[in-house]
Amino acid sequence: MASSTRPPGRPRSSVDAEVFAATLRTIDELGYTRATVDRIAAATGIAKTTIYRRWPSKGALVTATLVDSFGPLPLTGKDRDADVAAAIRYGVRAVAEPGVAAAFAGVFTDAIGDPALREILATQLQDPYRKVLMEALGLSEQRVLFVIDVVIGTLLHRMGMTGEPMVEADVQDLIRMLQRELR
Amino acid sequence: MASSTRPPGRPRSSVDAEVFAATLRTIDELGYTRATVDRIAAATGIAKTTIYRRWPSKGALVTATLVDSFGPLPLTGKDRDADVAAAIRYGVRAVAEPGVAAAFAGVFTDAIGDPALREILATQLQDPYRKVLMEALGLSEQRVLFVIDVVIGTLLHRMGMTGEPMVEADVQDLIRMLQRELR
DNA sequence: GCGGTTTCGCTACGATTAGTATCGATACCG
DNA sequence: CGGTATCGATACTAATCGTAGCGAAACCGC
User: What is the pLDDT of residue A2?
Assistant: First the structure.
């Protein structure tokens, strides 16, 4: 039985939201590499050791920040074209959020040669969307993973090359292309 | 007039190709972060200082390696569907090359907050393909940049999430999707 | 109020890395 | 052989990740 009683000892201060916000803000200002854990802690107003007590590494912290930043997808499951458009526009907004694209690229970089981090990435970030999209769009796992690659990959590549989010005309092309692909 | 006479002094040893090969091999084995310039130099058999005499930073070295790794696109300019398929399959092979995807992610990460590196990236890596594709496919700059985002972004996202190249079935879907999009 | 338990802030530290400085040795030209 | 530019090697600075240790603080049950 899940003992819902509070465990003994000093409770954790509830600063996760502030840490996530400071993480994105710092990455946006300085880039992934120069966004040190020290600076993120200072921006939050807590000690660096407190961050390392909650997340095992900088990559895990940033992945948790991305999971927190990407929220649940607002899909109806009724009109596939509408859901495809809604999902893509949701991704566009999320990736355009300051710091998100830089955080993504940094985590991808760290995940090379760090299987634990890649596992966290695939499980905590991609899996929830895979499940929701399979259900709402009625597609196979392979198909949904392909769509996620196309949408998020396209948006991240644009941000990586130009530093600017995708313009509306290209977003509309992306939506139409995937609506046709999934029809 | 380009004076073709050799400048005085000891000539540069022609080790660029070996450095590029060692860069990709080291990044493939250790990941971008742990692929230190020291290790790349040692794998090449030269001194670290020699590398810094030719490329101003690790990011510039890796970008040059990517430019060297991606070669010229074999397009005919006659059959658009065939050219689209050829270009995508060329990208698939290039991104699947050991170390290339990791190098890409690392350069994107470094390019955040390093405008000089981003300029090198866009100019030396993306521009040649933009021009060739605009010519061969007869498309606008905006359209070609969109296609590059979709193709390379999709392939890199798959590599970043799974560490494995895209399987043939997904490649075929990608080709068909873009052939329809550009018809 | 008091002991027990856990988290917090702080400081210090080891290991690793990017990039620079320096200097003697080396390779090529005329 | 002299002039010139590169090479190899070593040493160095400045960051950065992640860890260890310790006293202080917060909360609980009594």
Answer: 43
> If pLDDT is split at 50, 70 and 90, which confidence band does B10 have?
confident
| Mean pLDDT in residue range B62-81 | 94
pTM of the entire predicted model? 0.92
Alpha-carbon distance of A88 to A82, in angstroms, equals 10
* List of chain A residues whose C-beta atoms are within 8 Å of the C-beta of residue B36: none
Long-range contacts of A41-45 (CB under 8 A, 24+ apart): A44/A15, A44/A18, A44/A19, A45/A18
Amino acid at site B173: D
The letter for the amino acid at B69 is S
Integer distance in angstroms from CA B170 to C1' C20?
A: 47
Least confident of A16-25, A62-71, B9-18, B145-154: B9-18
H-helix segments, chain A: 16-34, 37-44, 48-54, 58-69, 80-96, 100-111, 115-120, 127-137, 141-162, 168-181
pLDDT tens for each residue of B135-170 = 999 999 999 999 999 999 999 999 999 999 999 999
Nearest to B157 among A113, A152, A166 (CB): A152
- The length of chain B is 183
Closest chain B CA to residue A115: B163
Q: If you average pLDDT over residues A112-125, what whole number do you get?
A: 88
Helices A100-111/B16-34 angle, 10° precision: 100
Query: Do the Cβ atoms of B32 and A112 come within 8 Å?
Result: yes
Measured to protein CB atoms, the chain D nucleotides within 7 Å are 3-11, 15-21, 25-29
Which residues, 6 or more positions from B69, have their beta carbon under 8 angstroms from its beta carbon?
B20, B24, B94, B97, B100
